[in-house]
Amino acid sequence: MLSKAPVITLDGPGGVGKGTVSGLLAKQMGWHYLDSGALYRLAALAAMNHGVDFDNESALAVIAEHLDIRFRQEADVGVIILLEGDDVTRQIRTEEVGSNASRVAAFSRVRDALLRRQRAFRTEPGLIADGRDMGTVVFTDAPLKVFLTATSDERARRRVLQLEQSGSVVDYDRVLRDINERDERDRNRAIAPLKPADDALVIDTTELSIESVLERVLQQASDRGLMNL
Hints:
single chain, alpha/beta, 3-stranded antiparallel β-sheet
């Protein structure tokens, strides 16, 4: 039987701050956290490691169904992500893996395989689910759905800063182009296109701080009676 633990979904394209907000929200509320994008990135990286063609839906589905992954919490560094026993926490955040994750996510059989894994994260006392279709497909009964957005220029600026802080040398124009291309794929794919749920709270984060966004979401959670479950 599927758990009926409450869920707050945060959807949106890359660079809108949903990962940061989701992590802080989960910590403040004491709920579990699902980074669904990491699952698609792990599937993409596994496909890259095994030389699977990104046009081969059947082979990609097999990869998704048999992902050997583990999330390990470490006190000093946070969550460590292991793929087939190797620490890939930083590797899955590269632009190449992110782009391939978008390609993997376009296939229904891959999404079906990962859907079961995503829903298994729904346990008491509750779940904060971060992704692109958490509110529209995975947790359609969530009592609070949030969709974050921002201009592509601002998202590219944030992504460049993030990569530079991790020691990478990146070109802003290339990052912006990659963001626009991924947005185009995600919004126009036939399966689970990127869009707000009909009942989602839409927040434009372009000129908002993380603290301001977090405060708005917490207020909505409080208004819905989710803070003290």
